[in-house]
Amino acid sequence: QVQLVESGGGLVQAGGSLRLSCAASGRTFGGYVMGWFRQAPGKEREFVATITWIIGNTNYADSVKGRFSISRDNAKNTVYLQMNSLKPEDTAVYYCAAKSSLNYYRDYKGYDYWGQGTQVTVSS
Known about the structure:
Layout: E1 3-7, E2 10-13, E3 18-25, E4 32-39, E5 46-52, E6 58-60, E7 68-73, E8 78-83, E9 92-100, E10 113-114, E11 118-123
Parallel strand pairs: 2-11
Antiparallel strand pairs: 1-3, 3-8, 4-5, 4-9, 5-6, 7-8, 9-10, 9-11
């Protein structure tokens, strides 16, 4: 059974940094794409970043490009989201997700597996 467990969220001041981790287990993830999404209160879940597991192709939402970086460690079956220059509008619950695909994928509705989420709060 696939499990995705996020960690690393917390409270940070604007301009600060956090690194989120997503530990994946339950299968081999070659042939999968991993994504980070976020959801603020009263808003729809939105795409943040995605990475293909084998090649490591990445794609980012315009709102985080240049500030966030997604990466993966194949040996540890872990995906990371390094978040720098954080802004109050980055405040949300951040979710890790997995989808069977060889290409990066931005639509949250297409993902097969989800973690429980981790709260990120950025104070001004």
